[in-house]
Amino acid sequence: MRRAWSIIAQSFPVKCYSVQPAKRYTGTMAHPLIAVCQMRSIADKVKNLEVVAELAAEAKRKSATIAFFPEACDFLADNKKDIVAMAEPLTGQTVASYKEIAEKNDIWLSLGGVHEASGDVEKIYNTHILINNEGQLVATYRKIHLFDMDNKDTGVRLMESDYVLKGTEIVPPVPTPIGKLALSICYDMRFPELSLTLRNMGAQILTYPSAFTYQTGAAHWEVMLRARAIENQCYVIAAAQTGAHNKKRVSWGHAMIVDPWGAVIAQCAEKTGIAIAEIDLALLEKVRKNMPCGEHRRTDLYSTMECQKSI
């Protein structure tokens, strides 16, 4: 049995690349390039937009087909009042600027976790949007799992639901030039039920644009991203916020791309920048064929209904 596992593992050599390894790649239609972006948003939408524009242009110069941006790429304020006040509808100026950046650079943009005004005077949506290279909004996903923590023992209180409305829909994977792309946001990665649902809906690439806190990022970030890639046999792309945004908030960073075998194939350092990698759907199919986990699931024993009863 050990020899069998060794033979399987040899079929999928680990490839790891450091931040911005552009010269290593040329990119083809069969193996398109993508850019995972890392930034440090602040409570200044204009300055954050300049960073998005610069990183998108850099991604295009390095022949990326899609550039992936993190949660809160529009802004990161330090209090509920400002968060709600600064939010815009998807028809607002910030999204209009993103569309212009995409069209100007002839590049798709995944902008994961913009603050979308909801019409509610007290709450917004945390929304992942996908814009194509012609500047058209092609998909919208509103975060369904909100990060709430009110721990009386430690005194830590972080309640996303205080100012964010829960999304109500799992959005089917979107056909893109790099494959079928599934939209999620940050805390969603802690719920494998969502990623499995997206895989069953045809996902080849899972996305987790994030603003992960430093402490939880140090402990769980890479472990969970690699787990989601391995168990679903999908590429995982996780753009990230990094560094100190204000006196209250520090993000972990380490934006990364993981292949369907669970190898980290590109990762950013701790500063603003991008990392480039290829998407090889032939590798994905090889992983799924040689390790056919999907054929072995005992859904007769752990159906959704039965799992819900046991919780």
Describe this structure in words.
The chain is α/β, with parallel strands linked by helices and about 300 residues long. The chain has a single domain (about 35-295), classed as 4-Layer Sandwich (Nitrilase/N-carbamoyl-D-aminoacid amidohydrolase). Helices cover about 30% and strands about 25% of the residues. It is built from 8 helices and 16 strands. The chain has helices at about 1-10, 45-60, 80-85, 95-105, 190-200, 215-230, 280-290, 305-310, and strands spanning about 35-40, 65-70, 110-115, 125-130, 135-140, 150, 155-160, 175, 180, 205, 235-240, 240-245, 250, 255-260, 265, 275-280. The strands form 3 sheets. Strands 1, 2, 3, 4, 5, 12, 13 and 16 form an 8-stranded mixed sheet that branches. A hairpin with a 4-residue loop joins strand 6 (about 150) and strand 7 (about 155-160). Helix 2 (about 45-60) packs parallel to helix 4 (about 95-105). Mean pLDDT is about 90; it is low at about 1-25 and about 305-310.
Essential attributes:
disordered N terminus, Nitrilase/N-carbamoyl-D-aminoacid amidohydrolase, alpha/beta, 8 helices, 311 residues
